[in-house]
Amino acid sequence: xxxxxxxxxxxxxxxxxxxxxxxxxxxxxxxxxxxxxxxxxxxxxxxxxxxxxxxxxxxxxxxxxxxxxxxxxxxxxxxxxxxxxxxxxxxxxxxxxxxxxxxxxxxxxxxxxxxxxxxxxxxxxxxxxxxxxxxxxxxxxxxxxxxxxxxxxxxxxxxxxxxxxxxxxxxxxxxxxxxxxxxxxxxxxxxxxxxxxxxxxxxxxxxxxxxxxxxxxxxxxxxxxxxxxxxxxxxxxxxxxxxxxxxxxxxxxxxxxxxxxxxxxxxxxxxxxxxxxxxxxxxxxxxxxxxxxxxxxxx
Length: 299
Known about the structure:
Order of helices and strands: HEHHHEHEEHHEEHHH
Helix content: 55-70%
Largest sheet: 2 strands, antiparallel
Oligomer: single chain
Strand content: 5-15%
Number of strands: 6
Shape: globular
């Protein structure tokens, strides 16, 4: 008999500075050691199962028995963890499932060796990483029964119906990707950097460097929502490194950073406007085509 395929992980990485994280400190301030202990307990349960776990009554009773807290208090702490983005709140409210972008990002790194022999399957409705971040060896599967229905509909639908479905699908995917991107950025900043930790440096005219911290990135990301602030600042750092004559002094670098981000933001918004205009024109053309077909059908 073949050995059963292992589903979960035997261990997972644990940051030594976890108690310096703002989210953990807030959790501890509200629920003391029991709150942090339950969170770590749930992480072990998630990784033991893979990249998520169902938060049902059985889990609450088992956790309360193991940790000595009431099931009601355990549920309250879990809900608090979701609101603080330690777990994905939308996934918890919709499907009563505990997971997060950070958890799934670490999971796919941990199963690399396993994926050498076969792809690792994940459930599409529970997978939070977008296409760009999902590794090639991760096979995102649709919900059971949905694939067959889609195949039947694909054969039955006409060309116009396919266009409508594609447009709606693009809109839905766009909204989902935007939500995932925002959460991914928030998780990445919270898990990868402390507030004062350097994210990148920009060379200055006096041969020193201007340090961009995680807290600065967070503030700039709120102001410039249309762009990836870190990616834009990295381009700026490379530009300054390769063009010494364009380097600024320490007094003028702040204004130059904002001018750089405003320029990239304007370009991004312009591209988005053009894309939206193109979609509207396609929608209008399709509407006119439908009206033309209806007129031709009249006796």
